Amino acid sequence: MTAELKPIKLKLLRLAAELASGCPFCVSVSQDPESKAPVACTKWSGSSHPVGVNPATCLSCGEYRRTTSLT
């Protein structure tokens, strides 16, 4: 990863973490910009054991909108 992309990826991960904080399926979001699947999600696993997904997949389900008020 280039030096220019690392800060951008970190900002995107922080945004994903903030949005996913309202999701009942999101267990955690790694702050590692090198990770291909930094979000631990139970919805995509179909069980109580989370699987790693990328931020786009995490936010595509829209569950965060049900409990997060974006202003």
Task: List strands and helices in order, with pairings.
Elements: H1 5-20, E1 26-29, E2 39-41, E3 51-53, H2 55-60, H3 64-67
Antiparallel strand pairs: 1-2, 2-3
Q: How many extended strands?
A: 3
Number of helices: 3
Q: Helix amount, in percent? A: 25-40%
**Low-pLDDT segments, ≥5 res:** none
Gyration radius, in Å: 12 Å
Q: What is the gist of this entry?
A:
This protein has helices spanning 5-20, 55-60, 64-67, and strands at residues 26-29, 39-41, 51-53. With 71 residues, it is α+β, with helices and mostly antiparallel strands. The chain has a three-stranded antiparallel beta sheet.
Question: What does this protein look like?
Answer:
The chain starts with a helix and ends with a helix. The chain has a 3-stranded antiparallel sheet with strand order 1-2-3. It has 3 helices and 3 strands. It is globular, with a radius of gyration of 12 Å. It is of the alpha+beta class and 71 residues long.
List keywords for this structure.
14% strand, alpha+beta, 3-stranded antiparallel sheet, 71 residues
